[in-house]
Automatic annotation (TrEMBL):
SUPFAM superfamilies: Phospholipase D/nuclease (SSF56024). One of its GO terms (molecular function) is cardiolipin synthase activity. Its EC number is 2.7.8.-. It comes from Photobacterium ganghwense. The chain crosses the membrane at residues 7-29, 35-58. This is Cardiolipin synthase A.
Amino acid sequence: MEKFYQVLAWASLFIYWLSIAAVTMRIVFKRRVVGVSLAWLLIIYIIPIGGIMAYLLLGELNLGRKRAERARDMFDPFAEWFQRLNDCPGHQPHLMSEHARPLNDLCENRLGIPALSGNSLSLQDSPQAILRSLIDDIHQAKSSIHMEFYIWHPGGLADEIATALIMAAKRGVEIRILLDSAGSMRFFRSHWPRLMRHAGIQLVEALAVSPLRVFLRRMDLRQHRKIVVIDSRIGFTGSMNLVDPAYFKTNAGVGQWIDVMVRMTGPSVTVLNTIQAWDWEVETGERYLPRLPECHVPSVSDDADTVQVIPSGPGMPDEIIHQVLLLSIYQAKESVVITTPYFVPSENLLHAMKAAAQRGVAVDLVIPDKNDSLMVEWASRSFFSELLNAGVRIHRFHGGLLHTKSVVIDRNHCLIGTVNLDMRSLWLNFEVTLAVDNAEFTQQLNWVQQEYIKQSTRVRPEEWEKRPIINKLVEQFFYMFSPLL
């Protein structure tokens, strides 16, 4: 019997070694960013069995067999639809500014989506104004409402939107709503889904969380886009989930969430609608390709005014928004202002920000003073010294949890959307960003950013270096895992 146990022990040790070797080889041959690979190897070697399990569950981008097959089948018809946008009169590459043209070329070559002119944009920077605007537009809807959000949290004005949607459905408006399963868990447990479906609203739970599917699909892959399209004519996107801040995470100790949304009319609304249609088909298998937008021919004398819609995530080209962000920063000549709730940058993004500051560009980073993610908070701090030494100005916002995701370059063009400056948003989740080349809109966004800075405390390099040694150790610990956050 003793010999049997010895054989069993050696066999177990061999299987354990073989598992470690197999997973290590798989990580190495995936050829991802070195920091990501090293972080996973560190986890596997420190927590051997748990690390292997974690990698199998969360280490690779696995959308699931059915969704992956749908995405492959969808690619050609959607690519053809986007290709036809090049014939839209609103696509005039020769009229684009020197800032917009490189972004258009990148997105056309990689995504097949061109920038379009002839849009009208308004920036809404108050949660109450955003929700009231949505309610008013829903009440005016005549034919269709298409929505998708990461979080829908019941309470306050969010309930008024649900009521407005039910009323719209009862008067014959066709409504499709796609909500992330994890983010909107509280909503799906409420009475609203039953009332909506009873009224005829198509409500779908995206990327359902289930213990039975943990080995079939990556569980932390989330639908993070925020899109509303009403009558194929009015579009909304930006950072705000469908929540009333007065009723959302009120006990988290970070204050109310601060967000912005863009309300848009024009041809780019149809592009947003098509992205929502893509997500709907990936989840349900049902195809609803919108009609091509109606565009007008811009005058040669018109000022540069284009919108580039940039989706990212499974099924889209790898790192497309990451590339757009890097290109925008490297193009900056005078200033870069970035607002983000979660700041865990890639090495390339970190170097781009430092290089911009070191060549004389004024670089400002605005982040919340208090964060709802403890790990992200400590990981973010680990980058402060490097950025401060390069001349980047860091501002910690005190007016609540600053959730706005925006970048303003040289005060004349900007990026705004759903993307956080962390690995999860840039490489993993379903996201969408607008690259806007419109001086008036960009000035509005710049004014909002400056108001954030006025409500912030600037981090001074000499004061930052005096922080306790225990803080530095904790920062370095979480820095090692920053590629996975």
